[in-house]
Structures
1.
Amino acid sequence: MSRITFEKVNRSFVRGGESFQALADVDLVVEDREFVAIVGPSGCGKTTLMRMVAGLEFPSTGSVRVDNVEITEPGPDRAVVFQAFALFPWKSVEENIGFGLKCKGMGAVERAPIVKRFVELMGLASYESAYPHQLSGGMQQRVAIARSYALEPGVLLMDEPFGALDAQTRVVMQEELIRISRLNPRTVLFITHAVDEAVYLADRVVVMSRRPGRIKEIIDVRSVRQRENWDSLEHIEEVMDTASFVHLRTHIWRLLREQHEAAPAH
Amino acid sequence: MAEVTPGSRRSGRRLAVLSIAGMVGFFAFWQLLALSGWFPERYLPGPAKVVETMFALSIDKYSGATLWGHLTASIGRFGIGFLLAAAIGIPLGLLMGWYRWLDDIVSPFFETLRFVAPIAWVPFAGLWFGTGIGGPTLIIFSGAFPPCLINAYRGAKFVDKRLLEAARTLGASGPRIVAEVLLPASLPSILAGLRVSAGIGWQSLVGAELIVVGSGVGYMMVQGQLNVDTPIVMAGMVAIGLVGVVIDFTLRSAEGRIKKHWGR
Amino acid sequence: MSDTSPGDTYRPTQQARRVLIGLGAFTVAILIWFVLSATGFSTGGRFPTPTDAWRAAVQISTSPGYAGGTLFQHVLQSCRLVLLGFAAAVLTGVPVGLLMGASRRVDALIGPVFSLLRPIPPLAWIPLAILWLGLGDMAKIFLIWVAAFTPSVINTYTGVRNIDTTLIEAARVHGAGTRSLMLEVLVPGALPMIFTGLRLSLQASWTTLVAAELVGAFTGLGKVLSNAALDINPGMILFAMIWVGLLGAAMTRALEWIEGRALPWLK
């Protein structure tokens, strides 16, 4: 069971003598194996929320728990896929994917079949010995996802993982991610700017306000998806063409636009 | 950079305490070793004795001059060699960056001579100049010259092409371009080169003074060594280190001030 | 110099022309040298003539050699000491640099003492080394260690500090403990800069050894230089200098070759 609980999370920091509040009173529960996307304007603290679950940052007040255990440090049970891929340039594709397993103490013989499985799952066959700099952005991100997935973590944290990819590769990766999540479901916290992406991928979409970040609204996408049977459609563009999808997307856009209009003009 | 040791958030104050502890520990350990009597005092004076010696040397002469006298001689030699290296190296580097034929001719010689460590010039320096000023100048020059040349060259070569095109379309000739475009544009690189050059030059000076001279801090240290006067030797080392720091600091602030003035 | 700026690549014909001009200038210089020597221009026997150099080469290459040994023996001695001192410096310096780079605490503890001792040029340690350890091998190895230790530490330290923070986070979120982090992330990540440090250490080792041998030694290339100066033998000085330069260059090239092999992942 991997259930994420944010309870009255506040985060403020001091810069140049002034105090800034990044997050204000965030309460959220992500159920086991739920795919939750967080969208919001820049600086709303969505990435900070994810990093708190990762154990890379900590709340000023309030608590962040996974399965009722408070988080104190990073660990393989909460793997992260970064926007900048963060692949180790000195390791080959295979070695990158096997990294987490190696840290767990698995020997080379034990690791090999697992790595092989994920190489095939992510469509990386014949690239096992390549180094990151020899791969395209999309391929690199596949390796990053494989690396995290290989650990079969209870929680998968994704920080705008497709942000650095071009539009077409992005679409391909989104379809890939859906495919893998169906095969290998787990609790996912997905941070993104792209509303399309969020609605397409998530069970629920959390919309955040400008700084100080609060939860503005949580939209239930799953019920709509099931009712309108999006899964029967093969391609992303078909899903994005349905009235229900458009309706959800427009709703979220409106919420975000309110934020912009409330903001003083810079 | 984020803290590498897992799960930690260190306060700055604790680190400062560690730093002070480290330094105090070092000096305390040194002083204790000296006092322990394991090593004869002639060979391992404690830090207190070294400082005392430095003060004494400010007044009394050793091997012909006080500490200041020796330092002046050393710094003077360094100055001449360094300025000569800069005066020749920087213009030559800029010109080589612009005139390819010059580059083609000079480079082979430069690349071959560069590999000879400055210290290896000492025998010829002694042979050709005796204990005159020429000897140390040659040695310091051989060490200080390459960075000046290389950095001026690189600065000129990597100048924004558009600036050069602008100058040429406005009718500027070769020499004018070198003086009024390449030189200012290469200034950051040149200044960085000067700092490296000064560092190497100062180090080469020490080497020169161990052999071919009759005054200066290096000479003083050698005399101290011959007389088994370790405090003198250590005092010399400290003095050399301090002057090196001062030179580097001066150049660094000059570099900083020029950068601010030019708005980089 | 073979530096080329962006948009200024040397085409094959230009490259050939450049080499030719270089060779030409060199040949001219050597010819001038021969001519000047032949016309007896040499300043009172203090400037080496080609015949001087040749005579010196022959003398030192054949038994019983010069200054207590043949060229081979001197070269062997000098190289041996450099390698020993260099190895000692690297094996101590790189780990220290790693520790200081990885741990703020270690850095705070050791850093200041380091900064205090750093400004003292390695050559300034020579009189002290002679006082403490005499003129033999130990003194030389000690001096080489002093000279080569610092570049190794500093470059390793910078290499570790320059590692992209995201990579370190990526390692931690996939479960890397301190040991894995050190061995699988910090060391490989810092390796390019560690090699830069090694190159600088090697150069410093060589320079310091020659200087130490010049000041006082029983054997080695520096000793040859020193004796040749006292004997007023410019030919021998020149010959020894050439060897100092050659060996320095050879060692650097060897290290660069190793570097190329050790870092296959660099573009």
2.
Amino acid sequence: MSGPAARASILESLKPPPVLSGPIRSGELDDRLLTPVGRRPPLAWFVAFAVTSTAALLGFALIVYTIATGIGVWGNNIPVAWAFDIINFVFWVGIGHAGTLISAILLLFRARWRNSISRFAEAMTIFAVICATLFPLIHVGRPWLAFWLAPYPNQRGMWPNFRSPLLWDVFAVNTYFLISLLFWYIGLIPDLASLRDRTAPGVRRVVYSVLSLGWRGASSHWHHYERAYLIIAGLATGLVLSVHSVVSFDFAVSLVPGWHMTIFPPYFVAGAVFAGFAMVVMAMVVVRSTMHLEHLITAYHLDMMNRVILTCSCLMGYAYLLEGFTAWYSMNPSIHHTFRQYIGGTYGLAGWITIACNVAIPQLLWLRWFRRNIAGMVFVSLAVTVGMWFERFVIIVSSLHQDFLSSSWHVYRPTLVDYGILVGSFGLFFTLVLLFARVLPVIATTEMKMVLPGAQPRSGEGER
Amino acid sequence: MRGNSRQVTMLAGALGLAGVAAAFFFSARERFWINWVLWFLFLLTTGLGSLFLVALEHVVGARWSVPLRRVPETLASLVLPMGAAALVALLSLGTLYPWTSAEGLRDPLVAGKAAWLNEPFFALRVAACVLLWAASYRVLAGGSRRQDRTGDPRFNRRARRFAPLFMVILGLTITVTAFDWISSLEPAWYSDIFGVYVFAGAFLAGLAATTLFALHLRGAGRLDGVGPDHLHNLGGFLFAFTVFWSYIGFAQYMLMWYANIPEEVFWYEARLEGAWGGILLALAVFHFLVPFLVLIPRAVKSDPRVLLRVSLLMLAMHWLDLYWMLFPSIGGAPVFGWPELSFALLFLSGGILWVRRIMDGGATMPVGDPFLREGLEFRL
Amino acid sequence: MKRTQEAFSVLGIFDTPDALIRAIGEVKGKTGHRLEAYTPYPVHGLDRALGYRKSPIGGMVFVMGFIGAVSALVLELWTSGWDYPLVTAGKPVLSWEAFVPILFEITVLFAALAAGLGMLLLLNRLPALRHPMLRTRSMALLTRDRFGLAVESAGEPLDTEALAALLGKAGALEIEVVEPSPARGPASPTALATGLAMILLACLAAAGTTYWGIKLFPRVIPMVHMLDQPRLDPQSGSPFFADGSGMRPPVEGTVSQGAPPYLPRSRQEAEGLVNPLPGTAAVFRRGRAAYDTHCAVCHGLLGNGEGSLTAAYGARPTRLTAGAARELSDGAIYHVIVTGKNAMPPYASDLTEDERWAAVHYVRVLERALDALDTDFQEGAR
């Protein structure tokens, strides 16, 4: 089919759609996005909050029980000394990385479609990292002495072991949390100023005033602000790569067969982005429908996020292939045994779940229908979330339960407390998300205003 | 001017050819073949990196890069002569690769891999890679050339659909190439990040070569419309992927250092002793530290003079990286004598002549691409 | 109303970014006062229109990043290499490879904090909660969808009417004259007192928290679990034993390590003991060390009974190098060392077996040195 009409239609299909559908002006954007903040939310929010906070409280109760009684209430044993605690830690840290990728890396690439989802994604990063830091804290056995990890001069004359990847974790995750918080907060300042100016005088207005630091939108301020924001985005990009690499070092520097694979750093980073985007997609789907933001978080946004998920799925497939091949290629009988265990041993089912959910099911995203249909993408994202959790399970538990010394081999069985704390972490995460949706604008209003048609001088559409 | 430099290049190439022929007869066989492998890998990875850049631009639908796209497309044509060179390099297997000999197979670690490391399967893999690369080149670069004449936007759609497939192909083929040609020189060694490492170096080399070639063309007035904003993006990519390459290289080294497993560290030990350690230090400084620090300031990223020097440095360092990985396998201290110089003259001249011939055969910009105008109007 | 002395700025409101940029072009040359634009989001081209220099934030970030890198490296190298060198997994003590991750993280931390806090606090001088613009009625418009251009006073008086006319001609839809913030005046006594009280409170809070953290918190469950263990602490009593004492003496007949029981009950029985150590220079040196430490204080460094304690205690320790002492056998001397004699206490607990016999050798050395007999020079002399 050729001819000018066909060519024109192909050209149209190649152009990226506008980042929002329907005409909208700056002021209307404020009304749409800032009015719900602080207002009484719909009933559905309360129901959801009740569920999530119950789960979170359950989790906290079980954590208190663990600390009071001891780590023995978990299923951890020797040789499986790390289990749900570290699985959950790696899982949650991974989920945080999507937010930074969306808000920082896509900013550097000047991808305009990021503007409507960046605020929410960054918030998810912060909440995910909060959930993540919970686990190293409680798994140390004596959490009240966790401050020993910090390098401060003390009467014991000791310093923490800077050569240990566990200490690298402490620095990396804390740095990541601080910088994500700073980045998120700086992005919030102009929105808080808008909220301040829309609120009648009172306590709320004072709070917004203080939090927005008296921001007034002065051009001399924007000048430094934009530059600093871009620089922090660049630095946060470095953090995305490094934090999950440092987490992977926890495993890769060891000698445990199946752990000491040099591909772990980029493999873990790809896995983190993968799991994170799946969580963002699921959360976005809920947010856009409950808050009626479909014209701002359009099918195009969801399509792009699904493409990232698909890319990461291919990267994971590559990593699994390489791991399997190199395991064979190493001619190391312990590694051979471990890899056979991944798909055939006590936890063989977990291995197959991992491969099915991480490599097979997301391939559905090659089909446009799955990228644009809500049910389809939620199915894939759910599969990815489950698959990525199981992947960490396979890496940690399956490798540990049968390593070098066969007399040490032992089966790991999680206890109810393990499951309860995992459920509690999900509860905590979604409770924080719900609270965030209630007190702060879920879309970065100021950043959206920047990309509205007519927002920038001379050219009609802003820039790409 | 162009005619003059062409003659100089041809002269250099002829000298190189003579030197290479002499090296075949008069220098050690291993030394001859390791040079051949080094040079064909150097130009091949540069070509593959450039082709990956083209594919990446199609996948994300980038507009800013459209005016520049013909440059990496042309550099990607190197995969054709280098594919042929790879097939010639199959003659080196007996000399360089221990797993081809009975003596090498006495090591049980090597003998166990015989299902993968055997000459017929190896040759089959090489042939498959060459075919896949040639086919991908035809689709992406050949299609773009055809679009110059037809202006048909269907190419864009086809390229956008093929590009992700090519990325999968590249990922697998470059991994196989890395494992086969480089790491199997010492077949007991294994590292699963090695494919990623070679890919990172290849992509960086492709970016550097693209930048270099683009600056050259721009200087000769053949890339009008490519301005500081485009160069800034190229500089940004160079910066980012310098960091990425360094990260992968450091990750591999640090993990092997930390676990200190004999079957893994012997590869590094050979590459750290004596002058080889000095070369690694030079790589750390000139392949990471210097480009990283130089490219930090925003203004520098769009400065043509700095970009020229940095790109040249990156390409030289990519060569040094391959040299450092390959040469210790033939034993002894680092050498750079007349054989190495001859190979350099031959392959560099050949590569330059080949690329320029391809570029001179058509437009320097994808004039048939419907998004060319938008790309030229790109401003930061 | 014309106010020449008191206005902070004259503000013009525009409804499109193009109008704002055009207005800047028109107003810029015609007034010497400072111009500031107000926009709800960053508008491209404003920096150029207003002639801003490049932001110094990049340099600040680089410097702080460098400081972070150096600090991290110094911290790691000093703690792991000098102050508390710890050899883990056989790695060299100054293992730079292992220090890179934390080095990287701290560099990024310092750099990012410099960017964020430097931009907010230093360059933009925020928080600025009392700025005159925050009390204008236009502020709500400016954070919503309008664009403002203000001619601001840096302290000099403004001709508000003329400036209002200028802005109006440049296309402003509304004009507002911005009043300066009410002067703060010197701090009132109550304010000062409140401030001091808050500082005092903060100090008390810090002190209290520290005290609680160090003294009281360890006593709280579960901190106290480590201290309250069901075990026997030294010096504590125990109801388990009849005499209520937690510390038990060793069982009857216990022999301590390295101290086999000494059997001779009298000097006569000890006469038979033979010195097991050879008469080598090493043994003599050891014996000298033992003698100088334990014996010389009474018997003197030369064995002549004139030690440092002699005068103080009015004691008369034996002269070891003369007379009757010379006639003593090795076993007899050993017996005296172990069981003591008269005012000399037993030295069994002070000297090991080997040290005692070495000391015996040394006594012989002293005897020979200070009072040699002809027979000593013969072969096989004792």
